Amino acid sequence: MSIAAAHASAFYREIAITSVIWAIKDDGGYPAPLNADGKRSMPFWSSELRAVKVISEVAAYKNFEVVAIDWVIFCERWVPGLIRDGLLVGVNWSGKIASGYDIDPMELLQNVVFNASKNIIDE
Predict the structure, then answer these.
(1) How many Å apart are CA 61 and CA 20, to the nearest integer?
(2) What's the predicted TM-score (pTM) here?
(3) To bridge 51 with a disulfide, which of 6, 8, 37, 45 should be the other Cys (CB 3.0-4.6 Å)?
């Protein structure tokens, strides 16, 4: 499994457990840089620590702050907005250039819901 795949797997599992998703923002708002395919992707993380680490390691994000978003609010408000704006979701980006998987917002919902149902069955 690649590092990006491992980060994505952790993302779905951790959000299914905590019901919180993490973003970063500055005075200009939330970042949505172009990815390698020329599409815009807004990054999110499954823990505060992961988001803080990106801020500390990526020069472009050094003036950003971490923002917690309740999972229900993310589903109700953010996902429709991301879809409307044609944005992908960056999943637990990491490293010196903050990179990783970029997925469709609906795929993110499906993966987190699947992991949540899996947790219920496993308990």
Answers:
(1) 21
(2) 0.89
(3) 45
